[in-house]
Amino acid sequence: METARSKDGTRIAYERVGDGPPLILVDGALSDRSGSLNGPLAMLLAPRFTAYTYDRRGRGGSGDNPPYAVEREVEDIDALVDAAGGSASLFGISSGAVLALDAAARHPAKVTKVAVYEPPFIVDGSHAPMTPDYLSRLAGHVSADRRGDAIKVFLTEGTDVPGWVVTLMTFFPMWKRMKALAHTLPYDAIAMVGTQSGAPLPADRWAALTAPALVVDGGKSPAWMHNGVQALVDLLPHAEHLTLEGQTHIVKPAVLAPVLADFFAA
């Protein structure tokens, strides 16, 4: 494990594997270096890239410095880009996709390319918008140390996992790992503000993004996810769109890795 220092002094823990152009992988909710898609993905990309995985602030080996702001997470990515030599490509999944887009727009001269997988945007009536009190309920559960309740709200409302499936999940080892990260769920909710209301995406949020972009979704994902991805493709000036047939939001690293490798190497 190595560490970088973000602008506000927060320690950001990361690992790197491989040898080649730097590529930073940004996790979504309830994930860190010890348990996420990005760990196996980094190993698959290592023959062609130096792949960086890291613990987002408040997770794993990284520090935290409240109060939270999306800008701090963007600065964390910027610190990793500096650690990688001053320029890098970015990949983000789910809410991590939003942070990757924010970082690419904030520092366009330092991000060579950006790819994202299924940012969970709600842009029309194909999915109920997140309720106005969604963030406050998450934060309330976290502040009362009701981590399991926070996870249940996130899974059932934020990712459409049926309640009976969530109940089953509480009996598996993954539940303990998720509870250890549940205090960061409000962070992901804050990062998604303005993109899950059932309205068009904010036209100015990524207006400064000039890097080539790849936007990927899974063929078996629900219609609302496809609609949000298409809205992003329509908004970005240099975006390609690719659907991976047979994949869901829980994409298989072995299917995604070749697509990313071809995009970032081109």
What does this protein structure show overall?
The protein has 266 residues and is an alpha/beta fold. It has two domains: 190 residues, Rossmann fold (3-Layer(aba) Sandwich), CATH 3.40.50.1820; 58 residues, no CATH class. The protein has ten helices and eight strands. An eight-stranded mixed beta sheet has the order 1-2-4-3-5-6-7-8, sandwiched between helices. Helix 9 links the parallel strand 7 and strand 8. The longest helix has 14 residues. The protein is globular and about 45 Å long. 44% of the residues are buried. The mean pLDDT is 95.
Question: What's a quick, concise take on this entry?
Answer:
The protein is of the alpha/beta class and 266 residues long. The chain is 39% helix and 17% strand.
CATH architecture of the largest domain: 3-Layer(aba) Sandwich
Separation of termini?
30 Å
Which fold name fills CATH's third level, the topology of the largest domain? Rossmann fold
- Tell me the strand order in the biggest sheet: 1-2-4-3-5-6-7-8
Q: Stretches where pLDDT falls below 50 for ≥5 residues?
A: none
The helix count comes to 10
* Count of folded domains: 2
Give the quaternary arrangement of the chains. Answer: single chain
Rg result: 17 Å
Instruction: Please estimate the helix content.
Output: 25-40%
Count of strand segments: 8
| Strand fraction | 15-25%
**What would you give as the CATH superfamily of the largest domain?**
Alpha/Beta hydrolase fold, catalytic domain
Helical/strand content category: alpha/beta
